């Protein structure tokens, strides 16, 4: 029996094409058989399960936005389904997949030169090179346009100076897409981890995203060859082209985390007896389970329909914001409800709920905070910017 087969209240599975169902099924089985058994130990140790990378590459999970260069392009709907299944296991695992695909391979494919595509995409598809995306800085997260990292031309090189913070995959990455201002215009640069002047330090003592390696990157007179400038990556428009793809993935990953919490809570409620009866027989517990299912179903519908809009190239950024905002906030509420249903056991690692709850707190901030997405939607509704 496939896990979460019952969490399809509006029969979305029947809307999936054969390819979509096949990829989703393969990732679901991979997650159940190979990821779930090891994830708690890695979360406990604060370590990324690197042993999963070759298997993910073998399954064709790297390069899903790319046609050719050793990659098999998949639809946005499939990308979302993969995020949902990986998110069911762990948001850090989903983040590694999202960053590699949407924030590193996508900009190289869309904004890179032919030489850059040929050099990097095949090795990234094979999982031999992991990438990271350096946009946020210690003092500029929600306001990336204010970034202080600078690039200047010197002979046949660009010299980069600045700091990038909260960089997912940073400590395991061999390649970084670094965003820096060149003559006041934001540009994307490919920086190899071994480049002199680049220092990548892991951010430690995190209570969320423990399986996801997060870095502080310091660039001190870091010289990159001029060929490492992504020729078409210009301005915040290029940055947001990547972020929009990743934000959709976050919205879908949150559905997976919510489903995982709901399933644990439902199964637990059916087995746990208090006052000589299963707690699932009490109206208040049923109300909790029902509210979880209602919100999961709404979030699934948003994710599914947004995937279809993206596939038809019809999605607006504000629609992506709505899905990220709603799905993450509702997943957080579902994780808290599930933790309550489990009583004291809700804090135990083996029930997974507390892990998802901690991770969802981070997911609420990354890829744009809930407030930022609210402001994006507010601007869409009123035509008035309330950002500053
Ligand atoms: C686990 C994790 C992984 C991440 N991975 C990456 C990565 O791979 N690459 C990358 O570049 N970045 C990454 N980030 C950074 C992330 O994008 C930023 O943390 C996020 O954009 C918020 O920036 P900040 O933390 O600086 O908060 P700030 O921008 O300082 O915001 C602080 C608070 O102020 C609020 N606020 C700010 N401005 C306004 C306003 N105008 N009106 C109302 N409220 C406002 C915010 O909503 C927030 O609640 C990651 C973050 C985390 C936690």
Please explain how this structure is put together:
There is one protein chain. By secondary structure, this protein is of the alpha+beta class. It has three domains: 12-125, Acyl-CoA dehydrogenase/oxidase, N-terminal domain (Butyryl-Coa Dehydrogenase, subunit A, domain 1, Orthogonal Bundle), CATH 1.10.540.10; 131-233, Butyryl-CoA Dehydrogenase, subunit A, domain 2 (Beta Barrel); 237-382, Butyryl-CoA Dehydrogenase, subunit A, domain 3. The protein contains ten helices and ten strands. Strands 1, 2, 3, 4, 5, 6, 7 and 8 form an eight-stranded mixed β-sheet that branches. The protein has a two-stranded antiparallel sheet with strand order 9-10. It is globular. The site of flavin-adenine dinucleotide has 20 residues, from strand 1, strand 3, helix 9 and helix 10.
Summary keywords:
Butyryl-CoA Dehydrogenase, subunit A, domain 2, binds flavin-adenine dinucleotide, Butyryl-CoA Dehydrogenase, subunit A, domain 3, two-stranded antiparallel ribbon, alpha+beta, 16% strand, 388 residues
SSE topology sketch:
Layout: H1 18-45, H2 52-58, H3 76-89, H4 91-111, H5 114-125, E1 131-134, E2 150-154, E3 157-168, E4 175-182, E5 185-192, E6 198-202, E7 214-225, E8 229-234, H6 235-271, E9 273-274, E10 277-278, H7 283-311, H8 317-341, H9 353-365, H10 370-382
Parallel strand pairs: 1-4, 2-4
Antiparallel strand pairs: 2-3, 3-7, 4-5, 5-8, 6-7, 9-10
The structure holds flavin-adenine dinucleotide (FAD).
Flavin-adenine dinucleotide binds at residues 99, 133-136, 141-142, 166-168, 209, 214, 362, 365-366, 368-369, 371-372, 387.
